[in-house]
Amino acid sequence: MDVYLPIANLAVNGLVIVLLGLVTGILSGIFGVGGGFLTTPLLIFYGIPPTVAAASAATQVTGASVSGVMAHGRNKGVDYQIGLVIVAGGMLGALLGAGLFTLLRSVGQIDTVINILYVILLGTIGSLMLREALQSLGLVPKASGRALRRHHPWIAALPYRWRFYASGLYISPIAPLILGIVVGTLTMLMGVGGGFIMVPAMLYILGMSAKVVVGTSLFNILFITMLVTMVHALTTRAVDIVLAGLLLIGSVTGAQLGTRVAQFAKPEHLRLSLALVVLSIALVMVYGLAVQPSEVYSVVPL
Amino acid sequence: MRSALAFLMALLVAVPCAAQGRDPVLVPDVSEHRIVLRQGFTGADLLLFGALLDPAGGRARGDYDIVVVLKGPAQPIRLREKERWFGIWINADSTAYRSVPSFYALASSRPVADIVDERTAAIYELGLPWLQLSPTGSIEPEEQARFSAGLVDLRERQGLYAQYEGGVEVSEGVLYRARLPIPSNVIPGRYVAETFAIIDGRVVTSATSEVEVVKEGVSGRIATEAEDASFFYGLFAIGLSLFMGWAASRLFTLV
């Protein structure tokens, strides 16, 4: 099935794109990550210009998270209160990220920065999650001598505490706000939803109840990607609606399937598999930075 | 059929007009003057054909060569080069070009090197090595050569630059034809097909015809809306994704 993409200016096999959407959709439903970190590099590998890939992937993630948020919302898996605080921070971060993006692109280092960020973030988060998942499965002995704590001491030190009932938290809103700013900046820079950073941060830094983490993360991704789509539509004009539509067909279906899987699987197993997915992507990225790229030259329009 | 008729008409008109000159007359045409980038477009084959006649209207000398060149709209670009730096590959040097053809395809009846000498090839830009890429700013000749070779290589692998030596068929010493594949990743704009007739390494005559590449239908509409009404286009994209996510969610609760 050949489809011509009007903004990317080339023809692609529509089925490949739909399948790609399906895979990222399933991931997004299971883990609450947007799947953008998988879509964008794969689209670029398929020959779609990087800006078009990042912009259209953001649009796709919106759709995938809408159906995810609805599915989790029905199961009372979204904490709207803390979600709105993170969204507010995320919007500030997205605008900050847009400025950084333009700056880095003009000096030609945006790709390298994105790749290095991927490696550092995915590498650390992946290994932390892997250790934690193995510990909770009893495969690795727990670190002894340290008391278990709900959230990071810095979080507890922040003033003005609010009660977030759904998350079972009594913390300062400044903490989720800062998380939102960080995630929003990274979203705009890396063209991804940021779920893979948000989920572990909610679990291990804020100490949110695991029941609402995935749904709340998707809730935030939904708003951030909507904003990112708009920023791209206005500035880079690289949102390809045909490409996004094809990705959406796959990913909204996948998201529904993924949510069902998430309800039956054990949370420890889910965390272990997400840790493995995240670590393998980090390794692929390291490899990509270290070997000679297939294209040494790249063209940017002036 | 229509283009064949048009070609015959052109032949009738062109031959008496040029009858005074001594050089042969080239009557070129292309199979399509308009290539439409619409839904389902996966590339096209453009047929460039024509005839070479002597001014008296008869058959021209039989020992000529034909070179056809199709060029896409020129663009200003910056070309970046990756280099190894502390073990990782990052963009290092870059150079800017004022106008680089977005598309270049050449077909010739024999290898270009056998038809003309280097000087002539450079003057008429016959072949990828002779493409005039107009770099801006001062840059060392060696470095410029390296960058230009990198650009040509990149675009060759993208299918945007191509050279088909032996791709022109000459029949009966009068008619010639060449088929140039147009990939789906061409940009819209005015493409110029130039045909050169060469005898003894000298370009005796040349003629151009134009091909318009346009976006039409749904694809054209999307491309213009994205440019002209970007805010509403963005809203539409967000709306579409929200609707599809919602619809899937509804659908699955029914199942």
Topology:
The complex is a heterodimer of chains A (302) and B (255).
Chain A: E1 2-5, E2 10-13, H1 14-31, H2 36-45, H3 50-74, H4 80-106, H5 110-136, H6 153-157, E3 162-164, E4 169-171, H7 174-190, H8 195-206, H9 210-234, H10 241-264, H11 267-290, E5 297-301
Antiparallel strand pairs in A: 1-2, 3-4
Chain B: H1 2-17, E1 25-30, E2 34-37, E3 44-53, E4 65-71, E5 74-85, E6 88-101, E7 104-108, H2 112-115, H3 118-124, H4 141-157, E8 161-165, E9 168-171, E10 175-182, E11 189-199, E12 202-215, H5 217-228, H6 230-254
Parallel strand pairs in B: 2-12, 7-8
Antiparallel strand pairs in B: 1-3, 3-10, 4-7, 4-11, 5-6, 9-10, 11-12
Main location (chain A): membrane
Protein name (chain A): Probable membrane transporter protein
Pfam families (chain A): TauE (PF01925)
General description of the model:
The complex is a heterodimer of chains A (302) and B (255). By secondary structure, chain A is mainly alpha-helical. In chain A, the strands form two sheets. Chain A has a two-stranded antiparallel ribbon with strand order 1-2. In chain A, strand 1 and strand 2 form a beta hairpin. The radius of gyration of chain A is 19 Å and the shape is globular. Chain B is of the alpha+beta class. Helix content of chain B is 32%, strand content 39%. Chain B contains six helices and twelve strands. Chains A and B meet through strand 1, helix 3, helix 5, helix 9 and helix 10 of A and strand 5, strand 6, helix 4, helix 5 and helix 6 of B.
